[in-house]
Amino acid sequence: MEAKKIFDILSGKFGGSIQQLQESTFPPSVVVGSDAIVEVCDFLKKAEGLDFLSLVCLSGVDLKEQGRMTVVYHLGSMKHGHMIAIKVELDRSSPHVRTVEKVWPVANWYEREAYDMFGIVFDGHSDLRRILMPEDWEGHPMRKDYVYPKRYHTWDV
Amino acid sequence: MIGLIGHVTSSLAHAGPLVRLLVTVVIMLVSAMVVLAVALLYEGAATYAERKVAGDIQARIGPNRVGPYGLLQFVADGVKLLIKEDIIPFYADRWLFIGAPYIVFTASFAAFVPLSYSEHVSVADLNVGVLYVVAISSVVSMAILMGAWGSNNKWSLFGGMRAVAQIISYEIPIVLSLLAAVILPASLDMKDIIVYQSGGLGIFRWLVFNNPFTFLSFFVYFIAAIAEVNRTPFDIPEAESEIVAGYHTEYTGMRFAFFFMAEYGDMFVVSAIATTLFLGGWQVPIIGGLSMPVWLREVLEVAVFFAKVFLLIYVMMWIRWTLPRLRVDQLMDLCWKYLTPIAFFNLVGASVWVLLLHGRGVYDLVAGLLIH
Amino acid sequence: MAVADEKFMQVSMGPQHPSTHGVLRLLVRTDGEVLSSVKPYIGYLHRGLEKIAERVTYPQFTPFTDRLDYLASMNCNLAYAMTVERLLGIEIPRRAQVIRVIMAELNRISSHLIAFGSLSSDMGAFTPFLFGIREREAINDLFEMVCGARLTFNYIRIGGVSQDLPEGFTDRTKEFLDYFPAKIREYNDLLSYNSIFIKRLADIAVIRPEDAFDYGITGPNLRASGIRWDLRRAEPYLVYNELDFDVPVGRGEMGTTGDAWDRYMMRIYEMEQSAKIVGQCLGMLAPGDHTAKVPRVLKPPVGEAYVRAENPRGELGFYLISDGSTKPYRLKIRTPSFANLSIVPKLGKGVMIADLIAIIGSLDIILPEIDR
Question: Looking at the 3D structure of chain B, how many domains does it have?
Fold first, then answer.
């Protein structure tokens, strides 16, 4: 299905929460307000004709210059072979967004990674721990303003 | 060699009791040393053979660096194991941990004693030889549990539990299969059993060919024996991909080597029992009926005995390097749902056969028919 | 991490364990042999590749992609190159496309050979592993001819491939393709249809299609669940739309669709298909450039792209954001094993320890690409 059409369906259903369609990206992305993300995702997964059954990828992006952080959900449908990216823009000083783990269980791990790397807090997540870094690591390494530590326990880094 | 003791002591009849005791002890020690040396040599050779067989099966060469054709590889391995650091884990139960390898090795080595290698070569001609071997090899399971518990390691404990469950379960089909065989010679003495199988060109009166039930018993015994010595596909007590190394996870150096040698020792023992009870022991096929000097006969008999044993050991190696491993519950299924009932059936069948035909085997029947 | 419940034993499987396929730690709670929960801990191999990507130029990152899935470096190179090319808008010469497909499929075969071998050694049969290695050597030799490396190739570059095929490559590849089908039959005889092997894997850890979608399972693991989804067919890249090959799916031949045996068998079937593809591609090789004209300094225009390709282990995707400079602004690597591993806690409930090994082995995870 065309991205424009998906955007129209979403706009019709969720109104103002669907903010923008970016057709220059590949795949095209839809910017969604952070409070509606779970409902939008649930709709995208279950709606007839959309069937975005799989969360292909979930990435955090740190847009430091704009004072924002983005969570990008790449959704794919193996039934129809189409893809779309859903973006949620968050305040960089305290990034919070609701978890979509109930929609796609795999989000559990993706969100843990985004939390680990960017410090994005996924509200309602069942097990929000660091996943790649040690549990007592300080800071979130993928942030653009991350300062490399000099030492970790007894080791020089 | 017990006979030798009797011979020597009777010739020392005029000497004092102390001298007689001393001579007896010396002879016993010497014969133990000889057997130990032979056993160690065999174990070295077996590890070399295992690696060469594995190499052959796996499209590679195997050891070929130390000595000609890598023949001295086992010496190098032994030296390496001897000089390795001997680690006793801090939280281990010291005495259990230290004791286990010795008991394992002793039990495995003690099982060599009643074996009859030829008509006159045996360490001790026990009249309960079969029973003795079955009993002494069960001690291994106790020692394995000692080592597993003493290591204070969870993987070891898993291995120990698996080993005990497995060895005790498989004792049952083993003993039942052996019983099905020994009711024919009606003796538990290894030598008597072998002598019973003489005749028929040294082949056809083997107990395995005696009747259909002993034939089946042989295979039940051999499968159960592979499980008894913890080899693939029944190597779950030391399944390295599941529980690291099972009960000997924490063992290093010589202590590990004891477990290792005990495994090869057990392989020899179970193969020797199979040879003795089912495959005619040291009976020389075909030319055995000819008259020849005693020494030549003895040499031939020992050679035949070892050839049969090594053939069975080779089959075990072949199976090990071909098959995947069973899961622990499937292993128990195999024992309790298949092998044990079959073994019972064999025992009953063999008993009925003996009762009805007065111990005559298939060969005797066929030969009898041909003569008439 | 105190043991909360006396009934269960808490065991840490890994990070050093023979069959966790790398440094993966699984915290398992067991009641005897039966697991009540499995909790994977990852990150032991985390090297911060995504962070590194933000500090190096686009071409400089290609060697790092080798280190993602080191058993399928060519495929990782390919997916990364395709991502950057999409942002740059470069058209790849036809010869380069065909060479890329040959490399990707040869690497798929070699990766599946390791998957086949490591699952077999997890199941206790070590011989098939070495058989797999034997054929993999032949493929490694081919790669060595092409680029000099045998593990981390760095051969597929942005714009094409680093150099043209050497003389004799076609003949040697044909030679390999001629004898490879016979080897696959050998694997099937030795392992795939071995009854112990089937018993160990059939009906174990069934992934139903819904679960496969929910947990983002891709690649052979998804197809084993009966879903015909292969990016080479669904979103054809390079010259895949001109090639004639099948996408095998699980049919539950030995048990339930989507069980461990189906997942294993997908790899065998895919090797056959890949060999078929390579054969066709050799015929499609026409003279031409091996690389497009690529500027010395790569400055993709501002934009973002998520490009994915079918790797041996599933869908490998690169989400690349460019800010118009010579370095990526953000590179997110979506690796198949990461998602595939996330289903383990669900599959690992109520199975036995040996089954957990089968689950890990049949999912064919590889840790460097999980931890990145």
Answer: 1
